[in-house]
């Protein structure tokens, strides 16, 4: 397969740069356990990439929880405050982000996370996240109308580069099925590093599927190669 040359890169955050998906699972399971419910991976997959109010709504309706969306968000925030500062980097993420920075590849963060959650998650990774000059935090950004799988967050993130790249000039890095759908809907190529539990058939829309960011070869997309 041949890939199109790109000039700009867009990174998802949760489950791609940080292992925060593990922490979402723990946080949401802690809440559901009060009602004797289980947070299955099947349900989690539907929620990955949604904005916080969208996700809360689906959780409540799926499990018939006696909570309003606001209450669910409040309960989640209590869990996140404890868990998210433990976020750790996924293999290869730091190296790749530093590589793009070193070679002046325009780079943006495009996550559905809220500003509040973002700050908790980057507690121990501030220097690395400072390398992103442009950040779009979907759940807190009024310009991002809809969460993934809609393309909004990627289109808004791309529009914030001063040179306004076209979608085909942008390469997205994602871990989630909803994120891949969002990138494709935006007209962008997408490298997927999926959770191993995701069925192979659900990864088919991705331009390239890798088991780790460590395996990414920038030159496949016309980007500066790793030299050593
Ligand atoms: O187990 C879950 N993971 C992730 C999400 C949602 O996905 C967003 C992260 O999306 P992204 O991968 O675009 O950062 C979170 O902010 C949250 O709203 C969720 O609800 N449940
Ligand atoms: Mg993700």
UniProtKB/TrEMBL annotation:
Organism: Trichoplusia ni
Protein name: pseudouridine 5'-phosphatase
Gene3D superfamilies from the UniProt entry: HAD superfamily/HAD-like, Putative phosphatase, domain 2
Domain of life: Eukaryota
NCBIfam families cross-referenced by the UniProt entry: HAD-SF-IA-v3
Top-level class of the enzyme under EC nomenclature: hydrolase
GO molecular function: metal ion binding; pseudouridine 5'-phosphatase activity
Gene: LOC113499519
EC number: 3.1.3.96
Catalyzed reaction equations: psi-UMP + H2O = pseudouridine + phosphate
UniProt keyword annotations, A-Z: Hydrolase, Magnesium, Metal-binding
Sequence similarity: Belongs to the HAD-like hydrolase superfamily. CbbY/CbbZ/Gph/YieH family.
InterPro entries registered for this protein in UniProt: HAD-like_sf (IPR036412), HAD-SF_hydro_IA (IPR006439), HAD_2 (IPR041492), HAD_sf (IPR023214), PGP-like_dom2 (IPR023198)
Cofactor(s) required, per the database record: Mg(2+)
């Amino acid at each position: 397969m041949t890939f199109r040359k790109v000039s700009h890169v867009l990174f998802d955050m949760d489950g791609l740069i940080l292992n925060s998906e593990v922490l979402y699972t723990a946080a949401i399971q802690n809440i559901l356990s009060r009602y004797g419910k289980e947070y299955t991976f099947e349900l989690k997959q539907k929620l990955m990439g949604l904005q916080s109010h969208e996700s809360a709504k689906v959780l409540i309706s799926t499990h018939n929880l006696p909570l309003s969306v606001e209450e669910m968000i409040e309960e989640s925030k209590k869990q996140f405050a404890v868990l998210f500062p433990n976020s750790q980097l996924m293999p290869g993420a730091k190296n790749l982000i530093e590589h793009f920075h070193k070679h002046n590849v325009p780079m943006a963060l495009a996550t559905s996370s809220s500003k509040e959650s973002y700050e908790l998650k980057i507690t121990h990774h501030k220097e690395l996240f400072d390398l992103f000059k442009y950040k779009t935090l979907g759940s807190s950004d009024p310009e991002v109308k809809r969460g993934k799988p809609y393309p909004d967050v990627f289109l808004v993130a791309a529009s914030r580069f001063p040179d306004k790249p076209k979608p085909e000039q942008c390469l997205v890095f994602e871990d989630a099925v909803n994120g891949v759908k969002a990138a494709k809907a935006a007209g962008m190529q997408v490298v997927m590093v999926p959770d191993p539990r995701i069925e192979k058939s659900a990864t088919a829309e991705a331009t390239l599927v890798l088991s780790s960011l460590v395996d990414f070869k920038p030159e496949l997309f016309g980007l500066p190669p790793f030299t050593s």
